[in-house]
Specification:
Elements lengths: L1 H6 L14 H19 L4 H6 L24 E2 L16 E3 L9 E2 L7 E3 L2 E3 L5 E3 L4 E6 L6 E6 L4 E6 L5 E15 L5 E7 L2 E6 L2 E6 L7 E4 L5 E4 L5 E5 L4 E5 L2 E6 L6 E5 L4 E4 L5 E5 L3 E5 L5 E5 L17 E2 L1 E6 L5 E6 L5 E8 L2 E8 L2 E8 L2 E5 L4 E2 L8 E2 L3
Parallel strand pairs: 2-26, 3-30
Antiparallel strand pairs: 1-2, 4-5, 4-32, 5-6, 7-8, 8-9, 9-10, 10-11, 11-12, 12-13, 14-15, 15-16, 16-17, 18-19, 19-20, 20-21, 22-23, 23-25, 24-27, 25-26, 27-28, 28-29, 29-30, 29-31
Length: 399
């Protein structure tokens, strides 16, 4: 990518501060969410008052061929009619309700790994005990162990457990977004110690120095380049093969697609820009934030509705918790569908399951699972459980 190739400059650092405490993690996370909100969606004070106490959960997995059963469609009237080839059209919109007829429900388990009720459930249904709530997690393809970013009362730690839940080694300080997957499924991590921050991708490592008070992985490119949060809060790129890092100018966030080399950048001027594998700009966006690409990169998930393009929608955050989710075509941003959470509720934590989105919905002290598809939505049958804000019933594995 042109921006990446032009950006490379060595990052120097002095001595590293000690690993962050959870209070520092939370405080810095609030700062980062505010920055991401500026570059993605504008907060709604009315929604904040209505939905107090909302925080961050997870970053969103494998593809599957299952199809969503036929559903009763109840779209709301869009601001603009859907128009073929019009990336500014709103398209079909659906106001999600958890009170739906039986034919609009599903009872199949997710086909992506997830954590729930103290267990990590794999795609084959096997369960690994893991009592602590993860921020994110992934399976190490080399060992079959689960590698988990765990937030406890003092630190963000990277821990390993065997399939039966037996701990492996000692916890390593990290960051809530310090884990991702590389082009061949290898683990990509950023860990911290008193001497600095270390980026690891498979068998390769790169010392990021001590200038990073806070960081996290934004995404990984097909060639193995890693986009991460730099010392100034923007997007930096690391090339482990040559041992260099550099800054991508005027950026505040990034989302990548491994299959295609797409990279969406949240710019300092409040817009988003999609670059293809050749560094060419495919589209720009100023009415929502970019969240994630589907596994085959056919679709992109957007969050937020600061311009109230969907009548009655509200929004107040981005990336992890929102009241509005859009599905668009990734290459040209054409409308597929948009979804608004039930009144007084919100989406918190979602992932791609093939070409559909699985999302946690919080409403009235209970968490439900919904499946968002191009032709509408379905509600998980018997999957609603009581819970607390900021603690979704399911945490999905890293992509």
């Amino acid at each position: 990518m042109n921006d990446i190739k032009d950006a490379l400059s060595t990052v120097a650092g002095a001595s590293a501060p000690p690993p962050l405490s959870l209070d520092q993690v939370r405080g810095r996370a609030r700062q980062i969410r505010r920055r991401r909100t500026v570059t993605a969606v504008v907060a709604s004070a009315a929604a904040v008052a209505a939905i107090a106490g909302v925080g961050v959960a997870v970053r969103p997995s494998d593809s599957h061929d299952g199809r969503v059963p036929p559903i009763a469609k109840t779209p709301t009237a869009p601001v603009r009619p859907t128009a073929a080839g019009d990336p500014d059209a709103v398209g079909p919109t659906y106001a999600v309700s958890l009170d739906v007829p039986a034919e609009q429900t599903f009872n199949n388990e997710p086909t992506v790994p997830y954590w729930s009720d103290g267990r990590i459930v794999d795609t084959d249904g096997t369960a690994t005990p893991f009592p602590g709530r993860p921020s994110t997690f992934a399976k190490d393809p080399a060992t079959g162990e689960w590698v988990v970013v765990r937030l406890d009362e003092a630190n963000a730690d990277l821990v390993r457990v065997e399939r039966d839940g037996t701990p492996v080694g000692a916890p390593v300080p990290t960051f809530p977004d310090g884990l991702a997957l590389g082009p061949r499924g290898e683990l990509v991590t950023i860990t911290q110690d008193n001497s600095g921050r270390v980026l690891t991708e498979g068998d390769g490592t790169l010392d990021l120095g001590s200038g990073l008070e806070w960081t996290g992985i934004y995404g990984v490119m097909p060639n193995g380049d890693v986009l991460f949060q730099g010392a100034e809060g923007g997007v930096d790129v690391a090339q482990l093969d040559v041992g260099d890092t550099g800054t991508i100018p005027h950026t505040g966030a990034a989302v990548t697609s491994l299959p295609t080399g797409f990279a969406a950048y949240g710019m300092d001027d409040g817009t988003w820009r999609l670059e293809d594998e050749n560094g060419a700009t495919r589209w720009t966006l100023d009415w929502a934030g970019v969240n994630s690409f589907s596994p085959d990169a056919r679709y992109v998930a957007l969050v937020g509705d600061p311009q109230q393009r969907i009548p009655g929608s509200t929004d107040w955050d981005s990336e992890h918790a929102t009241s509005t989710i859009w599905i668009r075509t990734a290459a040209d941003l054409l409308p597929v569908a948009a979804f608004t959470a039930p009144k007084g509720g919100y989406f918190d934590g979602w992932t791609w399951d093939g070409d559909t989105l699985l999302a946690n919905v919080f409403l009235d002290g209970r968490w439900s699972l919904v499946r968002l598809a191009g032709d509408g939505y379905t509600v998980g049958r018997g999957m609603t459980v009581p819970g607390r804000t900021e603690q979704p019933a399911r945490v999905f594995a890293a992509q």
